[in-house]
Design a protein that fits this description.
With about 110 residues, the chain is of the alpha+beta class. About 20% of the residues lie in helices and about 25% in strands. The chain contains two helices and five strands. A five-stranded antiparallel sheet has the order 1-2-3-5-4, covered by helices on one side. A hairpin with a 7-residue loop joins β2 and β3. The longest helix has 17 residues. Bound molecules: guanosine-5'-monophosphate (5GP) and zinc ion.
């Protein structure tokens, strides 16, 4: 198993875990781009939003992100969700993950 997020999900690489259920974990991003920057990912390896196997995961991933945002008190003020996909989308880790950014007023909008 060489994928870094698989290793994080398995607990082989330490992370600041804020949420876990049977299928997903949420961790703090190691290089936060906002006051609160979380990554939500399936425990099982799926490469990206458009991979085979992603269809069963994508909607649950989004719903889990909302649950995590509520748990972390981000929902009332608002937060942003980003899923970088493949090379042109800026994906650097090829294990599906959703960014939650919040905890402050976000300024930029897109690229
Ligand atoms: P991407 O660029 O693929 O959308 O996002 C990958 C994210 O994973 C980046 O924001 C990066 O900071 C984060 N990241 C990469 N390696 C690690 C790690 O070992 N631990 C944690 N917590 N985050 C990581
Ligand atoms: Zn993986």
């Amino acid at each position: 198993m060489s994928c870094i997020f698989c290793k994080i999900a398995a607990g082989e690489i330490p992370s600041a875990r804020v949420f876990e259920n049977a299928e997903f974990i949420a961790i703090r991003d190691i290089q936060p781009q906002a006051k609160v920057h979380l990554l939500v990912m399936p425990k099982a390896h799926v490469e990206c939003l458009d991979s085979s196997g992603a269809a069963e995961v994508n909607s649950k991933l989004l719903n889990t992100a909302v649950e995590v945002a509520r748990q972390e008190d981000l929902a009332a003020d608002g937060f942003r969700v980003v899923v970088n996909t493949r090379e042109w989308g800026g994906q650097t880790v090829a294990h599906l993950h959703l960014h939650i950014l919040g905890g402050e007023q976000l300024r930029g909008r897109f690229a």
